[in-house]
């Protein structure tokens, strides 16, 4: 007989009571592809609502791609990256909203998250130009790095316009997927769906509850079991009016004994090599959780936890310490586990 797996359970403080749902209602599921990954929506509602959502969800996702995908030559972000220096470009509401969040997280983290890393992301083989099997030269890295810098962006949020004073290319891949989750969740609410679970590429946001009154349970992503036995227990999160995003180092390439992560440190232009494996953040906004998780990966175990504590983030990080895999949680997450 297999022994049961012990689990820790994280239950957030509920900011509002969930909408009443009949136990006779059923959970319906829709799914598709977007942004090079998959999406799923589980919701409590009728088949007629499913038909409406089948039309409306892809339209919301297409807006994100049309505005923020560097793989689309005519997207708003691609047009901005071709714009002459110090020229204003008008931004759609969604793009402007993401930029407000991106620049705030860049400022809070001292540039550990930076939305102007597009040229370096591409140089390292993680952008539209395609993969590479060996690292670029230090001179190439230094040249592209000199062009980056979030402080060289000038965002006029009131007028929804932006300009740049250097040729650093905008890249929102560390925050746009989380925004897409939020946008789908908001689309559901506008259509009267108040009980649902939205997922895009492993990032999730929960609304309300299931027909039986239970929350949408999700397990925090863990690529390896930590060395500490207590910490090895999986964590289940009740995702009620809450989102979860995890950033990791699983993507990249290996050259000899070296692994080059797709997560780049904006402060150096090189892939991170700080022992970080994953950073998971719980937040009411999936966009915010996404951006903060990226910043924590760059900051590393000590500075990352200090940052998360300062900003009252519910977060969990896994990192390597020698041959051991270690876990750290923040007080905000510990409070949910209490």
From TrEMBL:
Keywords: FAD, Flavoprotein, Lipoprotein, Magnesium, Metal-binding, Transferase
Organism domain of life: Bacteria
Enzyme class: transferase
Cofactor(s) required for function per UniProt: Mg(2+); Mn(2+)
Positions contributing to Mg(2+) binding: 174, 290, 294
InterPro entries xrefs: ApbE, ApbE-like_sf
Cofactor binding, note field: Magnesium. Can also use manganese.
Catalytic activity, reaction form: L-threonyl-[protein] + FAD = FMN-L-threonyl-[protein] + AMP + H(+)
One Pfam family matching this protein: ApbE
EC nos: 2.7.1.180
GO molecular function: metal ion binding; transferase activity
Gene3D superfamilies with a match to the protein in the record: ApbE-like domains
Family recorded in the similarity comment: Belongs to the ApbE family.
Protein name: FAD:protein FMN transferase
């Amino acid at each position: 007989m297999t022994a049961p797996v012990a689990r820790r359970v994280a239950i957030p403080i509920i900011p509002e009571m969930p909408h009443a749902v009949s136990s006779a209602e059923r959970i319906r599921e829709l799914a598709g592809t977007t942004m090079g990954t998959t999406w799923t929506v589980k919701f409590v509602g009728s088949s007629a609502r499913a038909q409406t959502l089948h039309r409306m969800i892809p339209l919301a996702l297409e807006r994100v791609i049309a505005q923020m995908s560097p793989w689309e030559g005519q997207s708003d972000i691609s047009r901005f990256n071709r714009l002459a220096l110090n020229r204003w470009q008008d931004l759609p509401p969604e793009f402007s909203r993401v930029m407000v969040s991106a620049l705030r997280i860049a400022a809070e983290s001292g540039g550990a998250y930076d939305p102007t890393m597009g040229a370096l992301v591409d140089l390292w083989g993680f952008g539209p130009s395609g993969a590479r099997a060996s690292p670029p030269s230090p001179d190439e890295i230094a040249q592209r790095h000199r062009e980056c810098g979030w402080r060289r962006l000038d965002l006029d949020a009131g007028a929804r316009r932006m300009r740049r004073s250097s040729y650093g290319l905008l890249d929102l891949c560390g925050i746009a997927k989380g925004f897409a989750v939020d946008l789908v969740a908001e689309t559901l609410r506008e259509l009267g769906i108040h009980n649902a679970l939205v997922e895009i590429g492993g990032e999730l946001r929960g609304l309300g509850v299931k027909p039986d009154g239970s929350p949408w349970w999700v397990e925090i992503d863990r690529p390896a079991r930590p060395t500490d036995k207590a910490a090895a227990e999986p964590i289940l999160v009740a995702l009620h009016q809450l989102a979860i995003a995890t950033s990791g180092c699983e993507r990249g390439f290996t050259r000899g004994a070296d692994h080059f992560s797709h997560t780049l440190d904006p402060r150096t232009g090189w892939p991170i090599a700080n022992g970080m494996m994953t950073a998971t953040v719980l937040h009411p906004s999936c966009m915010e959780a996404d951006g903060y998780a990226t910043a924590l990966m760059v900051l590393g175990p000590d500075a990352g936890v200090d940052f998360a504590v300062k900003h009252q983030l519910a977060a969990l990080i896994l990192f390597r310490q020698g041959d051991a895999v270690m876990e750290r949680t923040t007080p905000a997450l510990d409070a949910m586990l209490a």
